[in-house]
Amino acid sequence: MKVIQASDVVKDYGLNGTTVHALRGVNLAFEAGEFAAIAGPSGSGKSTFLHLVGCLDTVTSGNIAIAGSTVSAMSKTQLALLRRNSIGFIFQAYNLIPVLSCIENVSFPLTLLGVDKHDARERSLKALAEVGLSGMENRRPKEMSGGQQQRVAIARALVKEPALILADEPTANLDSKTGREILELMLRLNGSAGTTFIFSTHDAMVMEFARRIVHIRDGQVENEERK
């Protein structure tokens, strides 16, 4: 089943009176359960593509369908529900809420979904255990290493059991050893839960782990490889 279908996707930005062509007619599809990387240099359009797929931005032209539903046909409310219910995000800056504890950060998406407080705690504890953070539930982000914070971000993405997780440069702020551990963790979760993972990256180590690599340059798909 196709989780993502991007058809002739164009994205333009206005910048200082000029038009920046971030994506120039991208056609890509991703099947359920893929562990894939969108690779390319800075400014290639890879993060833009992820933001469009994650419904954080809108296309200039073309279409993106998530699980068969065309994103451009959705209202703002429908897009918010799609993001909330079906898509998990992992960012290079972690995007944790500093005043909340580890478990509060993880359970936050469940609170937005209206999950019972007890159930939310139990699911959050399970997610933290899956990423190797049992016993750290009450720590705040500033009390954790970069690798631990990224694990919290992964747990937060996983806790609502989304069909799709988008990871934007997930190893950018990590040393190579910690980055490898994070990638091994995500690969295990991909195998055990069947969650689709799509990364944007220019990190060779991420590409080493990915089973499919789509190379983007100047807003266009240059080539791709499968392992």
Element-by-element helix/strand order: EEEHEEHEHHHEHEHEE
Q: Helix tally? A: 7
Range of helix content: 25-40%
Query: What proportion strand?
Result: 25-35%
- The neighbouring-strand order within the major sheet is 6-7-8-3-9-10
Number of strands: 10
- Oligomeric category: single chain
Give the averaged pLDDT, no decimals. 92
What does this structure look like?
This protein has 227 residues and is an alpha/beta fold. It is 36% helix and 31% strand. The protein contains 7 helices and 10 strands. The protein has helices at 46-53, 76-86, 102-112, 117-130, 146-158, 176-193, 204-209, and strands spanning 2-15, 18-31, 35-39, 61-66, 69-70, 87-91, 164-168, 196-201, 212-217, 220-226. The protein has a 6-stranded mixed sheet, sandwiched between helices. Helix 3 runs parallel beside helix 5 (146-158), helix 4 (117-130) packs across helix 5 (146-158) and helix 5 (146-158) runs parallel beside helix 6 (176-193).
Give the topology, please.
Blueprint: E1 2-15, E2 18-31, E3 35-39, H1 46-53, E4 61-66, E5 69-70, H2 76-86, E6 87-91, H3 102-112, H4 117-130, H5 146-158, E7 164-168, H6 176-193, E8 196-201, H7 204-209, E9 212-217, E10 220-226
Parallel strand pairs: 3-8, 3-9, 6-7, 7-8
Antiparallel strand pairs: 1-2, 1-4, 4-5, 9-10
Short key terms for the protein model shown above:
six-stranded mixed sheet, 7 helices, four-stranded antiparallel sheet, alpha/beta, about 230 residues, 10 strands
In summary, what is this structure?
The chain is α/β, with parallel strands linked by helices and 227 residues long.
